[in-house]
Design a protein that fits this description.
The protein is an alpha/beta fold. The chain folds into two domains: 181 residues, 4-Layer Sandwich (Metallo-beta-lactamase, Chain A); 127 residues, Rossmann fold (3-Layer(aba) Sandwich), CATH 3.40.50.10890. It is built from seven helices and 19 strands. The strands form three sheets. The chain has a seven-stranded mixed β-sheet, with helices on one face. The longest helix has 14 residues. The protein starts with 6 loop residues before the first strand and ends in a 12-residue tail after the last strand. The structure holds zinc ion (2 copies). One zinc ion (ZN) binds next to loops.
């Protein structure tokens, strides 16, 4: 057992007493370390925020430059001392700028995974395995039924559908941060160089990815006028737009949605998705269990999703394991 008592869950979020800071706190605090820009992790109103340069820029574009009183940008691997703790950020492979938080005190090391995946993603740095004593892992897809297919295969389904139904507009729901740019990049890598139409809610973050070196090819903003010219083309929009008034402007359309949840047929049905694309920015069961082995921690805390099965798995490997109930999580967000 790790016996580490300087980090623990609180109603506001995970708290590191060794450095007097919170990780991804849900409400304003004096000092926060933020793993990535998704809204269920990055909130406005903290006094001090430490995060990667990209995450801070995403927070500024979402909440305004004044989202925190003071910000500290760090690069992956750069060590900073906060109170009695040494902290560094390691790539999490989830979205641009996403990080695991590595905290050391008195020869003990804790790693907080944040959201992560281990599948290839051409839009962000790959997950780094950091051996530790206590590993605090997410578990969005923490059930053995969740085994995600290859993202390229899913993208090929979309490309085939475009060929089979050349008269239809393919409307694809994607989360604005991460999924959108990853899908576009995989399409481009598979030879799709036709301009792609994008909903207004996706343009700012796509521009941001471009500025950070992720080339996305030609993107065309959807307007009332341009809606008529989308026959046989791809139109990307936030998942919520698939069901709202905005989507009615496309006469002959196929609705697709890119999400790890599309593995569940019922969810695709509920959202009236005809072409479910199982593309996840979270680790699936195999990635979660492999990572528990790889980091070689003797204690595992499981949070942010389906905790019980992964706790059981870790215990069956002879490890100390416990579920951590943290509040304010929305399981569907950005999966
Ligand atoms: Zn996330
Ligand atoms: Zn999350």
């Amino acid at each position: 057992m790790s016996g580490i008592d300087w980090i623990f869950p609180t109603p506001t979020g995970l708290y590191c007493a060794a450095g007097d800071f919170y990780i991804d706190p849900m409400s304003p605090v004096d000092r926060a370390v933020v793993t990535h820009g998704h809204a269920d992790h990055a909130r406005a109103g903290h006094q001090k925020v430490l995060a990667t340069t990209q995450t801070l820029a995403i927070m500024a574009s979402r909440y305004g430059e004044e989202h925190a009183r003071q910000t500290q940008a760090v690069n992956y691997g750069e060590q900073v001392t906060i109170g009695g703790a040494i902290v560094r950020l390691a790539p999490a492979g989830h979205v641009l700028g996403s990080a695991q938080v590595v905290i050391e005190k008195a020869g003990q090391r804790v790693v907080v995974s944040g959201d992560y995946k281990r599948r290839p993603d051409p839009t962000c740095a790959p997950f780094e395995v950091v051996p530790c004593d206590l590993f605090i892992t997410e578990a969005t897809f923490g059930l053995p039924v969740f085994r995600h297919p290859d993202a390229e295969e899913e993208v090929n389904k979309l490309l085939r559908s475009l060929l089979v139904f050349p008269e239809k507009t393919h409307l694809v729901g994607v989360y604005a941060l991460g999924k959108c740019q990853r899908l576009i990049r995989i399409l481009r890598d598979n030879g799709y160089d036709t301009p792609i139409f994008v909903h207004g809610a996706l343009t700012a973050l796509s521009d941001f990815y471009e500025q950070h070196g992720v080339a996305l090819g030609e993107l065309v903003p959807v307007t009332t006028e341009s809606k008529k010219a989308t026959k046989g083309r791809l139109v990307l929009c936030p998942p919520s737009a698939l069901a709202d008034r905005w989507s009615r402007g496309f006469s002959d359309r196929i609705a697709a949605l890119a999400s790890g949840w599309m593995l569940i047929r019922q969810r695709a049905k509920q959202r009236r998705v005809e072409l479910p694309l199982v593309i996840s920015d979270h680790a699936d069961w195999d990635e979660l269990t492999a990572t528990i082995t790889d980091v070689a921690a003797d204690t595992i805390w499981v949070t942010h999703g389906q905790e019980e099965a992964l706790v059981h798995y870790a215990r069956s490997c002879g490890l100390e394991a416990a579920p951590l109930a943290l509040q304010g999580r929305d399981e569907e967000s950005a999966a």
